[in-house]
């Protein structure tokens, strides 16, 4: 069911993924589908779990033996390529999972791979968390904007901006500021 749902999401968009749409695609009744999938949320979660697993597998393979800028580029390219090949699954990978679903997903492994990619920059503890968040939000943001057509009407082409974004991330991580105390507290 997850694979068929993922294919439907890639073709028609993650928002179009419903039990009735999947039942039509499979040539079964909705009640028959419910014998295998616990409702619309369950279907969407299964596709999200599949997407996270695929993304983690690709990321792990791409990062093997790499560090620093090379690892950052490999990780970024995996995310961008995955989003282009599987647009519905890419959206599914960002589905908010409940804590139990998240813990049993490939999400923690994917986060660990992202930490591995920034490890070459000698960041530890809280600074590593900040760096992972910066990398993840930059990759997700760029890829989402590109997928939505946000860069279609201007030059240079998005690939040139992608290269610059990855180089800027490398520079930011290479020159990461020393830890300052109380940065996370609200101003008084």
Automatic annotation (TrEMBL):
Keyword Transcription regulation carried by entry: yes
DNA-binding positions: 18-37
Keyword Transcription attributed: yes
Top-rank lineage group of the source organism: Bacteria
Record's keyword terms, sorted: DNA-binding, Transcription, Transcription regulation
One Pfam family, short name: TetR_C_33
Chain segments annotated as transmembrane: none
Domain HTH tetR-type: 1-55
Any GO MF annotation of the entry: DNA binding
Protein's name according to its UniProt entry: TetR/AcrR family transcriptional regulator
Phylogenetic classification of the source organism: Bacteria, Bacillati, Actinomycetota, Actinomycetes, Motilibacterales
